[in-house]
Amino acid sequence: MNQKITPPAQALQRLAALCAKAEYCGADIQRKLARWQLDADPDADQTAKQHILDRLAKDGYIDEARYAHAFVRDKFRYNHWGQQRIARELRLRRIPQTLIDDALEEITPHDALHTLRQLVQRKRSSVTGRSPYEINQKLIRYALSRGFDMDDILRVVGQPTDDD
C-alpha cells in the first residue's frame, strides 16, 4: 500500500527527523522511500531517492558502522541473540561483512557463554520431555534458533545444572 505523494524535500526532512531519533541503516531508509511515492517524474524518482540517501549519509544521519555497533549491542543485551543470528540479520539489512565482523567483536566469548548459560538455564525449567536426551535436544534447538554457536551450546547443555 503506497502512501500519498510526498515531495522529495519533505521526504528528506521527515527522514532526517526520524534518523535523529533512532539508528537506521540505508536499507531501512530505502524501504521507507519505496513505500512513499515521491512527487517527481518516474525517471527522476530513483535519482531523487538516491539523492536523499546520499544527503542523509553526508549529514551523518545514516552511518552503517554506527548502526551495526548499535544493532549488535541492543540485540545481544536486550534480545539475547547469539552472534550468528545478529550477523544474519545485519546481512539481511545489506551491511558490509567487514562492518559486521568489526561490530561483533564487541561480544566477548565470556559474555556470549554467560548469556547462553542464562538462556539455557531459564528455558530448562519450562522444557518437558520423556528423557534427558529429548530435553537436551529441545534446548539445543532453542539455543540454535537464538543464533548461538553449536560448540558453545553443546558445552553449556552438557554441563550439570544446579537442579541435578
Summarize it.
The protein is mainly alpha-helical and 164 residues long. Helix content is 68%, strand content 2%.
Please state how the strands of the largest beta sheet are arranged side by side: 1-2
Low-confidence stretches: none
Strand/helix succession: EHHEHHHHHHH
- Rg of Cα set: 21 Å
DSSP helix count? 9
Head-to-tail CA distance between termini: 55 Å
Count up the domains. Answer: 3
Q: Classify the helix fraction into a percent range.
A: 55-70%
Structural class per helix/strand content?
Answer: mainly alpha
Shape: elongated
Based on DSSP secondary structure assignment, what is the total number of beta strands? 2
Q: Main β-sheet, in a few words?
A: 2 strands, parallel
What's the rounded overall pLDDT mean? 88
Strand content: under 5%
Task: Tell me what the structure shows.
The chain is mainly alpha-helical. The protein has three domains: 5-58, no CATH class; 64-104; 109-157. The protein contains nine helices and two strands; from the N terminus they run βααβααααααα. The longest helix has 17 residues, at 42-58. It is elongated.
